[in-house]
Specification:
heterodimer; A: 209 residues; mainly alpha; two-stranded antiparallel sheet; 6 helices; 2 strands; B: 462 residues; alpha/beta; eight-stranded mixed sheet; seven-stranded mixed sheet; 38% helix; 22% strand; membrane (chain A); transmembrane (chain A)
Chain lengths: 209, 462
């Protein structure tokens, strides 16, 4: 049973001369010798850890977020958590067992999330859709003479409307098209890598499964 | 299931070893479409000797392959470069490996029964509540496991050669041997070994991520992650915390596409991290991992630094002629968890079993079709597992909000039970559909909440 001697063993000494490795290892050999052997960190730190009077026992103390009428101000809780995550992203801290973080975003009720994040965007999109819809129906009426009520009972119009609604749900911004194609490629990529073994260049029928 | 066609039946039914390769070619092309042949059974019987197979590489894959071959009556040569190789490795083996490979329990240094997942904002979740008393993740020292498997192969009749594989001469026809060139270190204490050759009928490439066998058969390359690990000896009172607990840290600071870990070993801990896309920043990630675990490893001393490549997906070609790749050489490391030991050992065993079966216990020559059976069986058994882990990695290691959602989901008991069941027993269990639906809804909810918070964070930056 090999036990570790209390000296620093560089990775390079484990290699025997005739065995050549990939270039990555050669790079790391040089930089390993510069690695400081200490447990004090060399990452960015601020002078103090994250502190907030409302952060108690590893979670947000909801009693301190109460509004005048006694209900909890969920928006303020969300704001506080945003600040905390931003702080930790910029100044990562050690995770301790003495003050474990047990906060779970699920304690904020679903309607608070909807009210804050979904409703404004929904209002915006619906407003834009209504404006465009009104203008388009005016245009169609002036071009074809079909009134609004008759347009709604026409199959072509209904199909177009459906396609537009689905399209907007899926593609909110121009970048979404790229994102979707990338996602599709990503989801099939791994499978392709596995099936590569079955695509022998001599074989005319690859594996089908 | 598949429509791979093998060499034509007519070309192989020869009682004498001289197969006419040129005559076989036109009929081979004509028969390629959809003809599935059990070719091995009609290979020529070997006169006066057993089938010879070389296993290049003596890790878990090589050791298990050599043992299975030797037990099956095949003349086996196991070529290993460094007999006491202390490999940089997490060293975690699932419960099923102990049973399937008859491992003695003293090989296992520690039994991990609890895990802690720590999110980017340090939300810590304990998982392992659902484990039954006899279930655990075994932590082993690679040098102990590897040498045990090699010794067992030797006991079963394999010839263990201490040597470094250099290159291989590929034969031109179906019955000529492969000629392996290697440097033998037997009886030498150091320096360059003696060049020797070895003639075998089939080769199993089990020589790891930088496989030379793979290069000899033009197997192609794979994307790989760098795993960087420091072994740290921490004070005894801090070691008590890691008695049977392993930790996983996720976050952009720790790794952009993988995780940082603290795994307990025999008398120290291994602190490490890995990445595929930002290999140059691995030192930064390691510092961040140490920072996150600082409280628990304070006062520790680094006793060893190590790094190794981890394949991300299989090589384009895992099989060519009578040469098959197994283990890391083939690229059988799962995504998401980066687990490779079990799959290496199992693939070695499966490949060896296919060779033993195709050669009827070493009495007949094998051929590519027999080895392809191993690939079929492997893909059929484990592709679902690999796919599921790939999806998990793509969804949950994508960004900090995704990781926050991941840790939130891990607090759920159903998730813990499913995760551990599939990890410990290596089967994708279907589970309760109602619970699955609840889980899906909760996952979507977590992801949406975390992403909403990140959007707010972006607003603060402006």
């Amino acid at each position: 049973m090999a036990s570790f001697s209390p000296t620093i063993i560089h990775f390079s000494t484990a290699l025997s001369p005739p065995y050549s490795r990939t270039s990555f290892t050669l790079r790391s050999n040089k930089s390993l010798s510069l690695l400081k052997v200490s447990t004090h960190n060399e990452v960015a730190t601020s002078d103090s850890a994250f502190e907030d009077p409302r952060w108690l026992g590893g979670t947000w103390d909801l009693k301190q977020f109460q509004k005048t009428n006694g209900n909890t101000d969920w928006d303020a809780v969300i704001d506080a958590e945003v600040m905390r995550r931003k702080w930790l992203r910029d100044y990562p801290e050690t995770s301790t067992n003495d003050n474990p973080v047990v906060f779970n975003t699920a304690i904020i009720p679903w309607w608070a999330w909807i009210k804050r994040f979904h409703l404004p965007e929904a209002e915006l999109l619906n407003g834009r859709a209504a404006m465009i819809g009104f203008f388009m129906s005016y245009l169609v009426d002036s071009l074809t003479g079909v009134g609004v009520v008759d347009q709604m009972s026409n199959l072509v119009c209904k199909t177009l409307l459906f396609a537009v609604v689905v399209g907007i749900l899926v593609v909110r911004k121009k970048e979404d098209i790229e994102t979707l194609t990338k996602l599709w490629k990503e989801s099939t990529h791994y499978d392709e890598q596995w099936q590569a073994s079955w695509k022998d260049e001599n074989s005319s029928t690859p594996k089908t499964d | 299931m598949n429509s791979i066609a093998f060499k034509s039946f007519a070309g192989l039914r020869q009682s004498s070893p001289e197969a006419p390769p040129l005559a076989a070619h036109p009929s081979r092309l004509a028969r390629r479409r959809g003809l599935r042949v059990v070719a091995g059974k009609f290979s020529p019987k070997l006169q006066g000797r057993s089938l010879r197979v070389a296993v290049v590489g003596g890790g878990p894959a090589g050791g298990c392959a050599a043992e299975t071959l030797a037990k099956g009556g095949v003349e086996t040569f196991l070529i290993e470069r460094k007999m006491d190789n202390c490999k940089p490795c997490g060293g975690a083996i699932p419960l099923c490996m102990v049973g399937e490979f008859d491992l003695p329990l003293d090989i296992i240094d520690r039994r991990v029964t609890k895990m802690k997942m720590i999110s980017p904002s340090n939300v810590a979740v304990d998982i392992g509540r659902t484990l039954k008393p006899h279930e655990y993740i075994g932590m082993v020292r690679r040098e102990v496991l590897d040498s045990y498997l090699r010794d067992r192969a030797k006991q079963n009749g394999a010839n263990v050669i201490n040597g470094l594989f250099l290159k291989m001469d590929v034969p031109q026809d179906a019955n000529s041997p492969y000629v392996l060139h290697y440097s033998s270190y037997d009886g030498k204490t150091g320096g360059v070994g003696e060049k020797r050759t070895l003639e075998v009928d089939a080769v199993i490439g089990a020589d790891g991520a930088n496989s030379r066998v793979a290069k000899s058969i033009d197997a192609g390359d794979y994307d790989y992650a760098i795993a960087f690990q420091e072994r740290i000896k921490i004070p005894d009172d801090k070691m008590v915390y890691y008695e049977n607990l392993a930790e996983m840290y996720v976050g952009d600071d720790v790794s952009p596409d993988f995780y940082g870990w603290v795994f307990p070993k025999c008398d120290h801990v291994a602190v490490g991290t890995g990445t595929v896309t930002h290999k140059g920043d691995i030192k930064k990630f390691q510092l961040a991992t140490r920072k996150r675990a600082e409280d628990k490893i304070q006062g520790g001393k680094i006793i060893r630094v190590e790094a190794h490549p981890i394949p991300e997906h299989p090589r384009p070609r895992r099989l060519s002629g009578r040469v098959a790749l197994v283990g890391d050489a083939a690229g059988y490391v799962t995504k998401c968890s980066g687990e490779g030991i079990y799959f290496a050992a199992k693939s070695g065993m499966m490949c060896a079993e296919a060779i033993v079966e195709g050669s009827e216990n070493g009495k007949r020559m094998v051929e590519e079709g027999d080895l392809r059976k191993y690939l079929e069986k492997w893909d059929k058994t484990y592709l679902p597992t690999y796919r599921v882990l790939d999806v998990l990695q793509k969804v949950f290691y994508r960004s900090n909000p995704a990781r926050e959602a991941f840790v939130e989901m891990c607090a759920d008991e159903y998730v813990q039970k499913m995760t551990f069941d599939s990890y410990l027993y290596k089967t994708v269990v279907p589970g309760n559909p109602l619970e699955d639906l609840k889980l899906a809804i909760n996952t979507v909810g977590s992801l949406m909440r975390a992403n909403a918070i990140r959007k707010e964070m972006k607003k603060l930056n402006v």
